[in-house]
Write a structure and sequence with these properties.
The structure is a single chain. By secondary structure, the chain is of the alpha/beta class. It folds into two domains: 211 residues, NAD(P)-binding Rossmann-like Domain (Rossmann fold); 207 residues, Rossmann fold (3-Layer(aba) Sandwich). It contains 16 helices and 16 strands. α8 crosses α11. The chain is globular and about 80 Å long.
């Protein structure tokens, strides 16, 4: 109805609407922070009691937020974290940012968290509420899962309730791209849905990008991360060749990147981890295959990326031949540097392979103090050890899995003869000064790039 639309629109513009954020992880917390700082009363929902306790006590549980950051959010007296989902009835806006993982087969979308959220919403939603899905998913999820669920409650989308999809673009561990400074795609189920969602994000985001429908927004997110997944596979494949040919892939990438158009840098690694890149392409693949479309590039990229931990393991086996010291130290286990996120980290698979082949394995990661692995058919817990020279000295082999900034690369460089550097961190350290390019103007010729030695 017109009255619901006008009322909600005015409440959003005047910042009197109450925002509900469902899921308080890497995606949810930055959203909470932005709305609270912008003047909105915000209720944060999560099923994890421990997270709620920590937030109330000004404690953080993710690396992108310090305890002080949480304290600053709470000082506004506009944030109310809770595990009581009946408080959904108090919200004018509901933003869903729960995990959308794959099932155990690593191929099929698992919408369990989304469906549970919808159930909680259905039991408590008021007419005139805006529901936005931010969790990454396959195209038509908004139209074929969210909308029908709400309509079964007797709510007409576009009149009684408003529905939109706006994909999260959080990049954990990277300060440069904040929630508020990263352009926000918004696709509404109806024109009113799009307008009201655009108005909402316009209050906290520098640039909002409205698109014609939710499917465009859903597919845009999948394209973004499938693009990355495939290009990572490409550079991983080239790295394998360069490694055999004694060519420094890092130097190759830096040289290629001097081309001012048509090239974007991607770096090789020990595997693809995290909550997005190893998951999102398979949401697209699953849906495309269901509709009888082939996904040949994704299939090829999967073959390359999935074998990266095994490639590192094989290198380790070769390097350990004839080495009496059977201690292997893995530096960094998080899926990317400077965060404490272990989701889909290739370090787990690598460490399991090493242990199951008889090696004594240690790991050091100040961000992740423990990991769960399966060794000899049993689940067990491993604890991180301190990073110091004694650790390096006592190791028969050192594998740099995650290139955290706090590692002393000058010290590591002393032990480079017994290091497998999966991130080319030492190449970056060694080439820091000499991989500099300057313009040299030659008579009657164009500008050339010259490498400084």
């Amino acid at each position: 109805m017109e009255e619901f639309y006008e009322k909600l629109n005015q409440e959003i513009i005047s910042k009197k609407s109450i925002i509900g954020v469902i899921g308080l992880g890497y995606v949810g917390l930055p959203i909470v922070e932005s709305f609270v700082k912008s003047g909105f009363q915000t209720i944060g929902f999560d099923i994890d009691d421990e997270k709620i306790k920590k937030l109330i006590q000004n404690e953080s549980y993710i690396t992108d937020f310090t305890d002080k950051d949480i304290e600053k959010i709470n000082e506004f007296n506009r944030f109310y974290p809770t595990n009581k989902f009946d408080k959904i009835s108090q919200c004018d806006v509901l933003i869903i940012c729960v995990p959308t993982p794959l099932k155990e087969d690593k191929l099929t979308p698992d919408l369990t968290f989304l469906n549970n959220s919808l159930k909680s919403i259905g039991e408590n939603i008021r007419r005139g509420t805006l529901v936005v899905l931010e969790s990454t998913t396959y195209p038509f999820t908004t139209s074929e899962v969210v909308v029908p669920y709400l309509e079964k409650l007797g709510l007409k989308v576009g009149d009684d309730v408003f529905v939109a999809f706006s994909p999260e673009r959080i990049n954990p561990g990277v300060e440069k791209f904040k929630f508020s400074s990263t352009p926000k795609i918004v696709g509404g189920k109806t024109e009113r849905c799009k307008q009201i969602a655009t108005a909402l994000y316009g209050c906290v985001i520098d640039k909002v990008v409205p698109v014609s429908k939710p499917e465009v927004a859903e597919m845009a997110k999948l394209l973004e991360n499938t693009y990355r997944y495939i290009n990572i596979a490409l550079v991983n494949e080239i790295e394998t060749f360069c490694s055999e040919m004694d060519i420094d892939i890092y130097e190759v990438i830096e040289a290629a990147s001097t081309k001012p158009f048509g090239f974007e840098k991607f770096y090789p690694g020990p595997g693809v981890g995290g909550h997005c890149i190893p998951i999102d392409p398979f949401y697209y693949k699953w849906y495309a295959n269901e509709k009888n479309f082939e996904t040949l590039l994704i299939d090829a990229a999967f073959e390359i990326n999935a074998n990266r931990p095994k490639n590192v393991f094989n290198k380790a086996m070769m390097r350990m031949k004839g080495v009496k010291n059977s201690i292997i130290t893995v530096l960094g286990v998080a899926y990317k540097k400077n965060i404490n996120d272990l989701r889909e980290s290739s370090a787990i698979e690598l460490i399991e392979m090493l242990i199951n082949n008889g090696y004594e394995v240690r790991f050091s990661d100040a961000f992740c103090n423990k990991i769960l692995i399966k060794a000899d058919g049993k689940s067990c817990e491993m604890l991180s050890v301190d990073f110091n020279e004694e650790l390096l000295e006592k190791s028969g082999l050192i594998i740099i899995h995650t290139d955290h900034d706090y590692f002393n690369y000058e010290l590591l460089n002393k032990y480079k003869e017994k290091i497998i550097d999966t991130r080319y961190a030492l190449s970056k350290f060694e080439n820091e000064d000499r991989l500099v390019y300057k313009d040299i103007v030659c008579k009657d010729k164009d500008v050339y790039f010259e490498r400084q030695i």
